Amino acid sequence: MRVWYPCIKESCDLIEPEPEWSIEEDRSFDGRSKLNGWEPPRVVPLDKYVGPEHSDFSKLSGVSGLVTNEKGCKALRPCIKNDVEFLPLAYDDEVVYLMNVTTVLNCLDRTRSDVSYFEDTDEVIYVRRFAFKKDALKGAIIFRVREVPTYGPFVTDEFIEAYKDAGLEGLDFELAWDSAASGEEASSGDASVKEQLPTDGCFDYCGRIDPEVEEGLIGYSKLEQSHLGVSLEGDVSGAIRALTDEVQGLIDGTEGSLRDEDILPISIQLGAMFGEALCKGYGWEWIEVGSGPDDVLYAVASPRHLYCVFPIHFIKKILQGENMGPDGENDNTIMLLYNMLDGIEGTIPDKLLTPVG
Asked: What confidence score (pLDDT) does residue 92 get?
């Protein structure tokens, strides 16, 4: 059995809702049903493809899912009607459909997957390599994974057959897992020796972050920048102000209600942008630290590795109401911390990678 990750080709339009959805609305496409009370929102092109190739699919900014046209809807609905809600979107002079995948499976084989956890919990922060429990995929066609429901969706060969039989265009399929390959074969093929970096006591281990993990974090950062309408390639301080305002809205409830189960995935996206802001604004870099190569947290380190910040943990503390100030109240100190880190290496700490924030 094989599991695939469908990828949008460059010949597809990139579209976004108008008005733009909040981050909670973006992240709510995690297996929850949306059909009851759905009113087709208007979507507009962010990047409209004008080349010769035809596509039956589009990418909706901020949402992990596929958008297809009437042809795709008619061709695929009979195959996946029990797994997907085809939610209409008003786009130009046509109706397109957001494929809201509602089948969420407890199918991740954590022992054979390469998984990063949040601190000393079983909360999954990132999956570098997926392995699945074959029995849990019996009859699966398109699905989300319980531990990372906003990632994906994943599909099996049956979906690809329906896609090809209908003559649809616009997707590539990247192999995520093959049951024919043993765990030992998969592990040896993907294994790499991590480059260890100097550390002198704050942490037992410091290393270069896995390139795939860094790419994923940069992807989350770009997603959040797009959501806020800012760019870290320009006014970084302005982008941090926008990020600070959004977090304040989440705390105050003006950006919508924040469920406990949403805090970690939102923290990853917001924290990735804060970490990237330090990289772009001050020349910091992503690293991993911990007790050893297999027990790490993701951080950003100052140029000479004198200080480090755990941006995801920092944002998560604020959203959980645990970033206490001197007055005993939860403080949104994102902008304050960013400004404080400007030129911080002018003060030499006792140890390398002294945590800040």
From this structure: 82
Q: Which residue has the tokens 């390959």?
A: 181
Question: How many residues are given for the chain?
Answer: 357
Residue segments in the chain with a per-residue pLDDT below the cut of 50: 182-192
- pLDDT at site 198: 66
CB atoms within 10 A of CB 50: 7
Residue 182: per-residue pLDDT: 44
* Cα–Cα distance measured from residue 232 to residue 237, given in angstroms and rounded to the nearest whole number: 9
CA distance 242 to 248: 10
Is the alpha carbon torsion for 309, 312, 315, 316 positive or negative? negative
Q: Do 2 and 156 touch, CB atoms closer than 8 A?
A: yes
Phi, psi of 287 (to 5 degrees): -140, 175
Q: Which residues 6+ apart lie within 8 Å of 78 measured at CB? A: none
| pLDDT score, position 188 | 39
CA-based nearest residue to 262, from 83, 25, 61:
25
Return d(Cα 307, Cα 120) in angstroms, integer: 22
Predicted model pTM: 0.71
How much is the pLDDT for 226? Answer: 84
Per-residue pLDDT tens for 296-307? 889 999 999 999
3-state secondary structure of 37: coil
Q: What is the DSSP letter of 347?
A: S
Rounded Cα gap, residues 7 and 31, in angstroms: 19
Nearest to 272 by CA among 225, 305, 235, 308: 225
Give me the sign of the Cα torsion angle 341, 343, 345, 346. Answer: negative
Q: Which residues pair with 2 in a beta bridge?
A: 178
Name which of 221, 202, 219 is nearest 307 in CA terms.
202
